[in-house]
Amino acid sequence: MILTFLGTAAANAYPEAFCRCENCERARVLGGPSLRKRSAALIDDDLLLDLGPDIMTAAFMHGCPLSSVHYCLQTHAHADHLDPSHFLSRSPGYGVIGAPRLHFYASPATVHRAARTFERDLSSDSLLDPEVGERLNLEIHRIEAFQSFSIGPYRVTTFPANHDPSVEPLLYAIEADGRSIFYGTDTATLPEEIWQAFHRRRMRFDIVVLDHTYGPEEPGSDHLSAHQVAGHVERMREEGLLTERARVFATHIAHEGNPAHPELVDFAARHGYEVAYDGLAVQA
Fold first, then answer.
1. How far is CA 112 from CA 58, 76, 87, in A?
2. 2-283, what's its fold?
3. Average pLDDT over every residue of 207-229
4. Would the pTM of this model clear 0.70, i.e. be above it?
């Protein structure tokens, strides 16, 4: 599996367009990996992680068209991760030719929020109507935490994120060809039930992606902080949850407390993990 980061910023991107803080100004000067779109990722060329607001820009900037995407695993329904207008823009009615049917997987609360937003802002049609799904070339699947299922060549296991419970957010383990990726963005400290489930299911990961909203001088709250990421990485290593050559990446990086990319890379290197950047592609 090849994991491509389409975006690695928190909700307001990095640099924040309206902000003149030291971090944003330095990111503008440095450019390159210090410029971050809102978080989303792609596995191989057919599995999307979050139907986010910046994926169109990411697709042409990083040379990874989404025209072969069959599946989308949605973490949750917050606007920086889910833009329901894509359901329309990828449909035959908008002139899209040859796109496969999109199988969209999300929690019931996220599906409900997506449908409500779609009907309020985009169309009088119900997103949940099967006939509308046919017109949109879309099939919606409601999934629950601690569920395992197969999609194409992938085996997926869901976990509950420690985040806004009103949208029932999910984290994902994705396995294929004997390799395993854990995608854990938009979560605070992982609850013990998740650690226990890792062991109960005998999981070991080749790539781990963790939320890194808050920087080295900040405490975590509804998201992880830099030191909490370091603690999670240490625990994963100690408990044998990482393979011998596993790599751990930070994503969902906010401008408020995280320095620009080079300085953040230096901090991460001292604490046993790496910092993802937009367009980075890594093989599990």
1. 27, 11, 15
2. Metallo-beta-lactamase; Chain A (3.60.15)
3. 94
4. yes
